[in-house]
Amino acid sequence: MIQHWTKFPGRPHGRFRRDGVRVTMDPRGVIYMNDKAWDLLGRPAAVEMMFDKGRRTIGLIPADPDLPEAFPVKPKKGTRGKIISASAFCTHFLIKTMRTALFNEVEVDADGIMSLSLDTISAVTRGAR
Questions:
Q1: 48 has which bridge partners?
Q2: Cα angle for residues 62, 90, 45 (degrees, 5° grid)
Q3: Per-residue pLDDT tens for 7-24?
Q4: What percent of the residues of the chain are helix, what percent strand, and what percent coil, each to the nearest 5?
Q5: Which residues contact 72 (CB under 8 A, 6 or more apart)?
Q6: How far apart are alpha carbons 72 and 70 in whole angstroms?
Q7: Is the Cβ–Cβ distance between 100 and 27 less than 8 Å?
Q8: Burial label, 68 (beta-carbon count in 10 A; 0-12, 13-18, 19+)
Q9: Where are the domains of the chain?
Q10: What SS3 state is found at 40?
Q11: Are 100 and 26 in contact (CB under 8 A)?
Q12: Which of 8, 74, 87, 115 is most buried as measured by Cβ atoms within 10 A of its Cβ?
């Protein structure tokens, strides 16, 4: 019998290490990054956002906050993390998550671009109750 398995790209609930990099995106297009992820990106005040459609990957690169295409990186109340309101970006590129999604592969390349793969996200909320 042929079976078409899909490997779960996530991890068990409660397995998040506090010293690890964590980046999520909610259904409204708000990207959250913890302090470690913000450090990895260079602690920018703003980012430019890019999308590689073929690889289904979001790219973030530090940017001058005065640029018209710069998305501000704002503090998230009650945490040391930061948020980026990326709804316009998500609408333009037809990116939609039904629930808050965790990016399981977060990398910063030699050019300082943080890559967030949409192919390896996993849901981190239960959805409607």
A1: 61
A2: 20
A3: 766 666 555 556 689 999
A4: 10, 30, 55
A5: 45, 46, 65, 84, 85
A6: 6
A7: yes
A8: exposed
A9: 23-123
A10: helix
A11: yes
A12: 115
